[in-house]
Amino acid sequence: MRGTVVGVLRGGPSQEHEVSLQTGHAILTHLPEERYTTRDIYIDKKGVWHEKGRITTPEKVLRSVDAVLIGLHGEYGEDGEVQKLLERYGVPFAGSDSFGSYLAMHKVLTKEKAKEHGIKTPKYRFIERQSDAEEAAKEITRSFHQPVVVKPVRWGSSVGVSIVGGYQPVHTAITSLLEAGAQGVLVEEYIRGTEATVGVVEDLRGEKLYGLPAIEIVPPDSDFFSYEAKYSGRTREIVPGRFAKPVQEELVSLARTMHEALGLRHYSRSDFMVSPKCIYFIETNTLPGMTAESLLPKSLQAIGVSFPDFLSHLVELALRGKRR
Question: 20 to 30 Å CA-CA from 64: which of 43, 176, 185, 290?
């Protein structure tokens, strides 16, 4: 295995550029030096590729690596765009393929997949055009319990998510996101309960799809698991979560089902709300964060899998696809 060259993509043109730099840094720092040679590939906010401080092209960089780990988040990284590029150049990479990534990033398509598999997900309304915002806001105020959750359909890390109630705040939240470039807005019923997230990893410890322990997320008072709460260090994450055993088992089972239903590959992390009535599926992440505050490394640590070992496992999964 010595001498395998692993390219690590980080940065990117999404609103999660800074978090992606941290994820990429964590991957570069923890990939075992004795097994891999790393290449730090930086993509700037305009989508231009760089290596060693110089502008380069994807073709040039990708010709010189054996495998790629993607440290990107949000648009371009999680929506299948960079995966299309890697597929075009035939470069093995860890994580879901371009179609699975696109599907999981689109929150409405993901919710429809959940419903097809009998999994409960919050009631929602999807708005694509500014001209529909007024009518949608009126209908949402009439037919949904207030407040509601307003979120962009294809951004990650809770960027742009707000919890608002009443016609004017709902209308403002929808139009603000559309004006900011969101490719559609999802308005969901607000579920009161405990937030949980569950990672799954393929071919770990002899299991085809290993379910990691569910994490219970306890945001700071008066906040939800917003972008700021995610990365401020003020949110408590309890691993394993304080769920009854049947709930813990159901969460893992649902995360496995969503991974397979969306046709994902290698690893993913699904988010849920555990209400007194039932478990609601919220969304699935194909490239979960890998920073010091991130959830997947914490759940791996809880079962005794170190971060370097997990990264080695991802490289192996990527290369295995090439050997088939």
Answer: 290
